[in-house]
Amino acid sequence: PEQKTALKERIKRLLKEQQAVLVAHYYVDADLQDLAEETGGCVSDSLEMARFGRDHPAQTLVVAGVKFMGETSKILSPHKRVLMPDLDATCSLDLGCPADEFAAFCDAHPDRTVVVYANTSAAVKARADWMVTSSIGLDIVAHLHAQGKKILWAPDKHLGGYIQKKTGADMLLWQGSCLVHDEFKGIELELLRRQHPRAKILVHPESPEAVVAQADVVGSTTQLIAAAQTLDADEFIVATDNGILHKMKMAAPGKRFIDAPTAGNSATCKSCAHCPWMAMNGLQNLADVLESGRNQIHVDADISRKAVLCIDRMLDFAA
Ligand code: 13P
Ligand code: SF4
C-alpha cells in the first residue's frame, strides 16, 4: 500500500477531478474524518450526513460510514452518484430487522404509527411513516404522542425503551440492538465512576438502560461532542464507539476522555467500543472507489419513492 500521505494526496486529487464530496461519520478512521473536513465535505452524525449530502451541489457523494447512510443519501438524491469504500459495511440493527419480518410485524399492528430508526434498510424505511435518528427521535415521538398516536418502533430496543420512558408514549418495540453499544455494562460503569467522581458521563442512547440511567448527557454523536465541549468538567466517561474520541479531543482540548467499560477488552472482543463495519472504511479502499467508480449504491426505484417520504418527514420536522 502507498504511504499514508501519498494516499491522502491521491484522494484529494481524485475528489477534485471527480467533483466529489466526502461525507463521513464520527466513527470512521480519524484520517478519513480529517480528509472530509479538509476537502470541504463533512464529518457528522447521521442526521447531518443525510442533510449535507442532499444539499451539497456535488454530483458524486462518497459516504464513509455504513450502508444505511449511503442508502439514505441515494434516496434523498437519486440523481447523484453515491459511492462507498466497502459495500459490505452494514450495521447489526439493519441486519436484525429483515424487511419481510418487519412488514409482518407492521401488518399485525395496523393501528400504530410506524417509526423506524435510520439504522435500517431502504425496504424497512419504505414501510415506515417516520424515520428518526438518535438526535431527533425523542422530539418526534413526543410530538406523535401529543397527537395521541400509538407507536410501533424498530429496531433498537434500547433507544426505543429510552424514548418510551422519557415521553410516556405507547410504544411497541422491535427487539434489536447494536452489538457495539450493547457491550457497555452498568455495574462496571458504577465502579469506574467511583474512581472518577468528578467525571461527567456521556452516553449514546443505543446503550443498555443501566448505562443510560447513569448518564449526565444522552445524545447523538454530535450532541455528545457538543456536551464534551460545553460542560464544565475536565474529565468524561464516554459510552459510544471510540471513533468519536478523535473529534471530542479536538473539540475539547485539555480535557480527559475515558472509555466506558465493556464486558471484554479489545484483545478478546472484536466489537468492543468500535464498530467492525465502520472500521471497513479506509484510505486505500476510498482511493480505489474514487479511481474505479466501483461500489455505487443503488436503491430500487419503487422502494426509494416510498422510503423518501419518511425521511423527508423527519428532515422537515428538523428544519
Ligand atoms: P448518530 O446518529 O448519533 O451519529 O448514530 C449513528 C450510529 O450508528 C450510532 O451507532
Ligand atoms: Fe450499527 Fe452499532 Fe455500528 Fe452504529 S455502531 S453502525 S448502530 S452496529
Automatic annotation (TrEMBL):
Cofactor note (record): Binds 1 [4Fe-4S] cluster per subunit.
GO molecular function: transferase activity
Positions with a binding annotation for iminosuccinate: H25, S46, Y117, A118, N119, S134, H204, P205, E206, T221
Coiled-coil stretches: none
Main location per the UniProt record: cytoplasm
Superkingdom of the source species: Bacteria
Keywords: 4Fe-4S, Cytoplasm, Iron, Iron-sulfur, Metal-binding, Pyridine nucleotide biosynthesis, Transferase
E.C. number: 2.5.1.72
Residues bound to [4Fe-4S] cluster: C91, C178, C275
The protein's annotated pathway: Cofactor biosynthesis; NAD(+) biosynthesis; quinolinate from iminoaspartate: step 1/1
Cofactor: [4Fe-4S] cluster
Protein location: Cytoplasm
Known catalytic reactions: iminosuccinate + dihydroxyacetone phosphate = quinolinate + phosphate + 2 H2O + H(+)
Stated role: Catalyzes the condensation of iminoaspartate with dihydroxyacetone phosphate to form quinolinate.
Recorded family membership: Belongs to the quinolinate synthase family. Type 1 subfamily.
Protein name in UniProt: Quinolinate synthase
Native organism: Paraherbaspirillum soli
Annotated gene: nadA
